């Protein structure tokens, strides 16, 4: 029988049920719930346990595939995993957890229904808490960044960036103003980690290919700039492969600025700490992540970086019935030599931590012993565009085509569900047989614009030629 005490109370004649609340539908949230519904199958069948997953989106995004989705090598629907299909024995609640009062075992949650009803956040009681809201982009107080910066953490941002890049090429091909053309064809990426390097490399590949279909744009007209504050990029793959990656990018006419910071991007002009100045309509910010703001709205212990303080058993330190892992958790790294080492916030640790967390949570419900999480980093792989990459796996260093092939093979093995594996493999096969798609679907971001124009009253004769009537909701696409 379930060991944890039920804190929510029950109605007369109803047996106690332990509610496990999983906050977050990312790597840790989805994999923890997936493993729990397998391990607790008897308890779920007897209705002794209920697993509730509260997530802001109805899907989990496999983030290593975002660069390929942005480049058009993969369809966006194939880089996400629908939670309702995978977690068929869990209760899925699409909404945002605003705060957690663990002393009272209560989370405050808003959903689309509460917005419609105007009731505000509602209380959701639980007995066991798995808090894994992940991370958000770590921004700095750079003037103009909030107005002009583009993130790269979600599938919506990846597809929006693809549409944006192609739209800039459309602008450059049709303008007569050389200043507008130059700004449209200048793309600045800030951050030399996985996200920044892979996104830039894939999009540069895509844009260079797309340029052949524009009569007035040559591939060398496009200006790509990577800004990194440290003296190396891709630190996870090692110094030697990081230098190789810099050489490869520069050989493709990509301007890599090491030891350089973005100081301002006001007025659509990127000003760097080395004195450089680049008018640009595209500034992609990938300079790190920070824990989700939700953690500050809980009564759980946090470290100096805002992460949950956890034990090696993935329980929240000094707190019963609370568990955490992934980007939002400071988990001791038992394989490191130093006493104060913590697991890196990457997918490799998150997936493995989720398995141990689920096992320990199930064991605690059954009164069984818990085990500690220990995993030595197996290595890292990174793509530098089509047929190019770097890999440092189990002490072996690969570069070029073999590394790119390992990158694809590894992530194909890790993407959840056989359905997604088959679809991804099919798309890769087809993309090798046919040409790239170069279509921009920016209008998807404003689906009602066309109907609003059609439904608007016709212009009066007094209106100047070309004037368009106002429409509620702003049907036109914004100035990019």
From TrEMBL:
The keyword NAD applies. Residues 19-341 form the FAD/NAD(P)-binding domain. InterPro entries: FAD/NAD-bd_sf (IPR036188), FAD/NAD-binding_dom (IPR023753), NDH-2 (IPR045024). SUPFAM superfamilies: FAD/NAD(P)-binding domain. Residues 456-468 have a biased composition (Pro residues). Keywords: FAD, Flavoprotein, NAD, Oxidoreductase. Pfam families: Pyr_redox_2. Residues 449-480 are annotated as: Disordered. Belongs to the NADH dehydrogenase family. This is NAD(P)/FAD-dependent oxidoreductase. It comes from Streptomyces sanyensis.
